[in-house]
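Retro notes, structure queue

What went well: the backlog is down to a handful. What didn't: a couple of records were mislabeled last round, so from now on we paste the full input next to the output in the thread. Example, using RNA polymerase subunit sigma-24 from Planobispora rosea:
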Amino acid sequence: MDERAAETAAPTGPAGERAAGPATELPAESAVEAVFREERGRLLAALARRFGDLDLAEEVTSEAIEAALVHWPVQGVPPKPGAWLMTTARRKAVDRLRRDTAYAARLAILGAEAERADPVPSPGPDADLPDERLQLFFTCAHPALPAEDRVALTLRCLAGLTTPEVARAFLVPAETMAKRIVRAKKKIREARIPFRVPGPDELPERLPGVLQVVYSVFTEGYAASSGPDLQRRDLAEEAVRLARILRRLLPAEREVAGLLGLMLLVHARRDARIGPGGELVLLDDQDRGRWDRTMIEEGRGLVVLALTGGPPGPYGVQAAIAALHDEAVNVATTDWPQIVALYDVLLTLTPSPVVALNRAAAVAMRDGPEAGLTLLDELAGEPRLRDHHPYPMARADLLSRLGRFAEAATAYREALGLAGTEAERAHLRRKLDAAESAAPGGAPRG
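Corresponding output:
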């Protein structure tokens, strides 16, 4: 997570919690939307585990939502809408399987009908055991699947991102991403990959994929890839909740602590990142008094755990970088030399042009804009940065600091064409106007 470049790039409660009160207080369509947001992942995971078919689980989940839209306006929203959706979806799955003459399908019917009248209760946010979504996370992170398919499938199925949103996160066309998701589902079905949490001997291989998925969900929530809003807090908070479940499940895994710490330290700034009119507020200009200090303290404690007892992992290092930002009184007093040193470590663990971009932004704060710009220009040919708007935005900011306003305006235009949210575009338009006004004779347009 770039603490400078990425900053230039309606919250819900804990998943599973719903406000008390009569069912008729909430319009049916709004209730379905709220329940879908909170229960879809749990419902899909439970159905996929029971029937062993992701496509069937997705189809009957959608049919249950459609049934709710038909019945709830007439009958009222049920006291336990999640359980209602589960029962409805399971019955629809049984009806589909009943029409299938295959022997395996008939066996599935027997197991499903035996439990038909006894829906599995949805665990609350404080349940001691992980809910069934984690079983589906580990299934989607199975090593039999290609790495990019693992994350894409889980983002689509469990986080509820649309295929275009997942595609944008991976910087690939939507059609390419759709093929990946279909391919991954087919592989799970044909290879009979089980829907379960793996044993201790399998965890080292499988855990990194699960952590990557959770962090990808958080990243989309922290800085939405598209749409009118800068943040999707429901996704960010869901990722934090899932990381807490992983932490309870795997308390000895230091990278789980590192991931949770990283997300808490970044999410602690959520209120300060948006101004009164919904505008983007950069890290330099944020009111640090609005940062969530309780969340920061929890995150700092997790950083200590993540960095103790062996070589650091990438999430622990990123969490340490975030902690240095959160501990500083302002940008000027931030320990930039230490942040650059941590980025050096991160580059050895996960070498990538995005990490190099983040390091260049930190070097610019430590050594000046010219030094940072030199590093950014060395990354100009990287394909992964071609459609990554923080790259031209970071160049534009450094060019402005050097007084090269015409060049800065050109870079701001490039970033403006790549930015995904309206809040980012509005911010870039303001920066572009300022650069054009400051350029001698006016910056060239077009």
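Agreed that this is the format going forward. Reviewer comment attached to the example: The chain has 20 helices and no strands.
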